[in-house]
Amino acid sequence: MKALAYEKAHALDAYAIQDMDVAEPKLRDSDLLIDIRAIGLNPGEALIRSVRSAERGGRVILGWEFTGVVLQVGPNAKGFAIGDRVMGTGDVTRDGCWAERLAVDHRVVAKVPDRLAFVDAASLPIGGLTAWEAVFRDRDTLPAGVDRVLVVGGAGGVGSMAIQLLKAKTDAFVIATASRPESKDWCEMMGADLVVDHSRDVIAQLGAAGIDQVDMVFSTAGTAENLSWFAELLRPFGHLSAVDIAPPFDASPIVSKSISLHTEMVFAKVISGFDLASQGKIHAEIADRAVSGGLRTIVSTQFEGLTAENMKTAHEQLESRRTVGKIVIVV
Questions:
Q1: In terms of domains, do 232 and 174 share one?
Q2: CA 225 – CA 229 distance, rounded (Å)
Q3: Strands (E), the chain
């Protein structure tokens, strides 16, 4: 089958992703074989491209956000049938979806309602699942006493879904950060109650709006650099949730307030084999809410054709760090 793949980790200025002929995916007993129809693009995939190389003689196929149609059902894959329209997030330890077909565990997949187009559904899985687990953890609501939430980086794929999920599922007052007029407008469209500029003094801006503290900060980028003002803004026994924590990380600024630190890695359950089915259920709820009007799909840029040229352009946009919403490629 055709796929986009590369051999050695590389920077964007040495772009090496190519159209390749690769072997068909091998199904495990709990897998579905998916005919890929559209894929969502994520900054994390651009990062992996820059650091992950293939084993000797091998190749790397990235991509873990997709929609498609079920072609084959493994003997232990329950609840799906050939022909089902589906979306999911895949498994970062296996070949990804930048290919014609994908083998994936059925528990991280959900059916796509007929009224939801493949391209729109492809904008939801990674951002939705990451945001859900970051703010709700292993439940479906916020921790007790969380009434004000600050989403840092509200216009990205994860931030967009965090704002919407918080407004759809809770009564929290949701503040988002954005530094450009177009990203501010996007956050407001997502439903943020207040938008402040993270390139300026956030605490001063919130103070001018009559807000002296928040109960939770969800940080989608720059956590280590922003930790001191996060600590100042959060109330004692508040919550900091972040997707970008990596060693070395000095948590001392939040210790004096007994702030709880929550890390989120969207593939944690897949890697550890823990409660995978919960992720499929989250995907299903997000898809249903998108159809009912409770959530917006977040496609901001669309490319036609899974080609090396389109992928390069998408990565250039991702690495500019100026995108809003989600880039989607229709296969």
A1: yes
A2: 9
A3: 2-5, 18-21, 31-41, 66-73, 85-88, 101-105, 109-111, 148-152, 173-177, 194-196, 214-219, 234-242, 260-263, 299-304, 326-330
The neighbouring-strand residues paired with 39 are: 66, 329
What average pLDDT score do residues 41-58 get?
96
Q: Which amino acid is at 201?
A: D
Give me the pLDDT at residue 256, please.
Answer: 97
Banded model confidence at residue 178, pLDDT cuts 50, 70, 90: very high
pLDDT tens for 21-32 read 999 999 999 999
Please tell me whether the overall predicted TM-score, pTM, comes out greater than 0.85 for this model: yes
How many residues make up the chain in this entry?
A: 331
pLDDT recorded at residue 195: 98
Q: How many domains does the chain have?
A: 2
User: Could you count the other beta carbons within 10 Å of the beta carbon of residue 277?
Assistant: 14
Instruction: Give 106-161 as a DSSP string.
Output: GGGEEEPPTTS-HHHHTTSHHHHHHHHHHHHTTSSSPPTT--EEEEESTTSHHHHH
Asked if residue 178 is part of any domain, the answer here is yes
Same domain, 133 and 246: yes
208-212 mean pLDDT: 97
- Residue 221 neighbours by CB under 8 Å, 6+ apart: 152, 153, 156, 243, 244
Mean pLDDT in the chain? 97
Rg (CA), the chain: 20
Largest CA distance in the chain: 60
Mean pLDDT computed over 126-154: 96
Residues 132, 214 within the same domain: yes
For every residue of 258-275, DSSP letters joined together read T-EEEE--TTHHHHHT--
Q: Which two tokens stand for residue 41?
A: 């693009």
- Rounded to 5 degrees, φ, ψ at 6 are -150, 170
Cα 208 from chain centroid (whole Å): 32
